[in-house]
Structures are given as C-alpha cells and as structure tokens.
C-alpha cells in the first residue's frame, strides 16, 4: 500500500507444477527485488542502510511500497492470501519471513481446489471478512491512497474465485481508486488444471468491469524465455518469478525513484486503455541475458528497444503478425538519454512488422528513470546498466482470448465438470453469460483493427 501511490495487494497463491507460477513467490520475489533496489538490509530488523544521505534521498519513494515502524524497520505494504495454508507457510518460514508483518500473511484451512465457485461462493466468502478488515487497517495508514496492485492467476481457484469476490468488495468500498493487475494467463498448451478454462473465463467475466488495467503474462512464454535466453535447462519457480519480478520492478520504478520523465500508474491507464474493456496490455522486457553471456551482447538503447518489440521477449504468447498496436508504453531505466530513445523509436517506426492502428498515429508513451535495474545474485540474469520494459495494448491478444474461448466452449458443450461448480452454488446461466462476455471482448478487439 502506498502513501503517495499504491497498495501493493496480493490475491492468489496457487501451488502448481513446474510449468506454472506460484504467485506467492512472484509477489515475494517482487518485494525482495524492491528491497534490494531500495538498499534495505536483509536482517531480522529489516532496517534501512545506515546512511543518512541515502535515507533522506530515498525515503519518500521507499514509503510507496514499504511501511516504516517506530523503531526504524520496514515491511512491505501488502497482503498475501491463499485459501489453504501450505503455500503461505513457505513465506512464513522462508529466508524473508522477518520482512513481512504476520497479519499480512493470511490463509484458510481449506483450499479452493481449482474451483472458481469455491473461491467465490463458499470457502472464499468465509475468509473475506478477515481480509477486508486487514485491508482497511492498512489503507487507513496511507496518507494519499492512489490504488491497488493485484498479483493473481486467473486459472486457479483462489486467483479466479476469491480474487473476483474480493475485487467486488474493494470496488464497492473504493469505487474511484485505481485497480491494476499482474495476471497469470492460461498457457496455450501447458496447463496444471483441467478446469482452467472455466476458472479463467468466469474470472474475466466477474472482474472486467472492476479493473482499470490488467498486465498479462503466462508461464509457458516465460518458461520458454528462461530456456532460450537464460540458458536454464529446467527453469524452476524461482527462475520464472525473477523474470516477472524484473518487469514488475520497471513498472513500479517511477513510484520508488525520482526520474526526469517518470510514468506513474495513472499515466499507464490514460495512455494504454482506449476503451474501458480493452485494458489488457502485454508485457515485454529486455535485456534478458545469461550472466555468462553478458560480455558478448550489445546492450545499446536501440537493441533493447528492438528486442522488446520481438514477440520472443513477450511474457505472454502473442505474435504481432496477427494484430496491430493500439498504444505502447516504453519504460527505460539506467543509462539512457532522450536522444538515444528518439533514435530507437524512429527506427522502430520504419519496421514493417510494427503496425499501429490508423486512428492512433502517435502510439508511444515514454518513461525514463536513472536508477539501473537490480538483479538477484542467486539468479541467472545478468546485471546491466540499462533496461527497457514495454507495455503494449495490441489487437494480437485477441488470439489468446479466442484460444481460451474455444477450450471453454468445448467443455461447456459437453457439460464436463460442471457439477463441481453447481454444488458450490453456481447456476448454468452464469456459465453462458461468461461465454457471451468473452465473445463480446473478442468482437471489441476485432472492431479496433
């Protein structure tokens, strides 16, 4: 949560197989990376480094995502929630257990079992009161509450059902406050749950009118990136989490560090979302280089900008050849200059495979921050002096929605696994309404070309 900016809000902790993403670790990895960039010591006291000058220069941005107690220790402004205890227990017993306040790690005794209905109607409802009470206590300590940032998977039971129920409550309580999401999208060919299409479509149906902007990523795309670019033969949870944390860190950098051309979360919404329902930008990040290969790579501003427009660097399966760009936000960090950025963008505009819709001729929003990116020393990613994170709203994402809808329709046509949802209080009409809503979203994207 954020005194000048955001509540760093976490909502899903589904433990899944090696090709999936444990979202508690995503949020934990992001907090840990923010901690490294903010020079917080990793100790039981979790205090700011003992340097008065650094403290004065960085304390304002620090308090966007960290709360300072009376004894000078810091803890993230966040909640981590799961409907079963084991995943949250990993955080409670892990190396960063002293970083988090105990009342911000919330779990229940019975999980959602990959069932949207259990998270939304039954088990999740029992946990809502405790979560909302803790959330209100944190928001009351914010001087200037600007918004909420959610991390969740739309394919799991907690991340789809409970997240949707919680989002509705937050919207009723804070209707004018920004709500942004980092959402793990179902992978095209890899899945950890048979009913993932049901959960994803139902989650989008219930949340699309309550969120302002949803940044998409999927585990299959990140798994492939880790294998190809980081030379990780068998990427682990930590490998995937560190990659996503690098992109998220660039998105939040403008809230944590002063810059000559910062782009905050309100700017993202204004420049990336042309219509309320078309709010699903795709994330790309560069450079993504193995630490052993850093001396053999060109890391100019032009190169990393070009890499961001290559679909192989996207954190979700989405090929640009099947769509046009609506808008694009380029967030640069480290050793970059406006002249280099202008030159890189001029070259991008000359590429035939980078096509914008005709009614959006400008297309680009630029953010600059002098603070270079930090990396986890335990990871394979190389430390660099500059980086670029691209957030683009493109009609190519309709391909992902179409694939999801095909899977959903195939299961719904046979009424497969429906009885597990009906037992939890859902009715058939809700399934058909969700399908119609997703079809309408596809049509909305088709109208933009």
Automatic annotation (TrEMBL):
Molecular function as annotated in GO: GTP binding; hydrolase activity; structural constituent of cytoskeleton
Alphabetically ordered keywords of this record: GTP-binding, Hydrolase, Microtubule, Nucleotide-binding
Keyword Transmembrane helix on entry: no
UniProt domain Tubulin/FtsZ GTPase: residue ranges: 62-259
Gene3D superfamilies documented for this protein: Helix hairpin bin, Tubulin/FtsZ, C-terminal domain, Tubulin/FtsZ, GTPase domain
Cellular component annotations (GO), alphabetically ordered: microtubule
Reactions that this protein is recorded to catalyse: GTP + H2O = GDP + phosphate + H(+)
Composition bias, Basic and acidic residues: 21-39
UniProt cross-references to CDD domains, sorted A to Z: alpha_tubulin
Start and end residues of each stretch annotated as Disordered: 18-39
Domain Tubulin/FtsZ 2-layer sandwich: start-end pairs: 261-406
Biological processes annotated in GO: microtubule-based process
PANTHER family, per the entry: TUBULIN
Family according to the record: Belongs to the tubulin family.
Function: Tubulin is the major constituent of microtubules, a cylinder consisting of laterally associated linear protofilaments composed of alpha- and beta-tubulin heterodimers. Microtubules grow by the addition of GTP-tubulin dimers to the microtubule end, where a stabilizing cap forms. Below the cap, tubulin dimers are in GDP-bound state, owing to GTPase activity of alpha-tubulin.
Assembly with partners or alone: Dimer of alpha and beta chains. A typical microtubule is a hollow water-filled tube with an outer diameter of 25 nm and an inner diameter of 15 nM. Alpha-beta heterodimers associate head-to-tail to form protofilaments running lengthwise along the microtubule wall with the beta-tubulin subunit facing the microtubule plus end conferring a structural polarity. Microtubules usually have 13 protofilaments but different protofilament numbers can be found in some organisms and specialized cells.
Protein name: Tubulin alpha chain
